[in-house]
Amino acid sequence: MRAAFLFHIVAIAGITNLAVAQSVPQPAAAPAQTASTAPATQSTSPSPEPLRHESTSFDLTVHASLAEAEPLFGPEGERAWAGHPWNPKFLYPQPAHDEAGAVFKIDHGPFSAVWVCSQFDVEGRHFQYVYFMPDLMVATIDVRFKPIDATTTAVNVVYTRTAMSPEGNEHVAAMSHGDRAAGPKWQAAIDKYLASRKSGGQS
Known about the structure:
The protein has 203 residues and is an alpha+beta fold.
């Protein structure tokens, strides 16, 4: 009985408090803040210059057997016909020897490049070189051989150059231009060397 009485007292008190709360004026809601529609100022920087990637190929006809032609395209063998500008400085192996894994340096004007002979597959008729000009360019040179007959070998050379920086773009463009003119020069130099060898002299 006492519990029921207390229940009614609590219930009445709750109703009274609710009525009082509803009768008290509530403060007006603060006006909603609208987001600014002014366009945000964004700093625009120029897009980075795309790095150049160019590939050039040319074909040669070496008037020699496959066994005679292939060595002419090793770093040491090339000395016979390429002239003084071609002067590889071997880091490995010592003494210098044409083989897969050979590492050497070549000067390209004021720059020095590190070359690696990544493929020297005589049986597979495929040589490949990779060289780096730090912060400027990386290049690969693929040389493939195809015997035509006992005294003639076809050679395909592919240069692929990739710039490593915007400054390197200029080097890729200039050297790729030189690659496109290299075929006739190589052909003439190799023909001259082979002719001098047949006549018993070296030039």
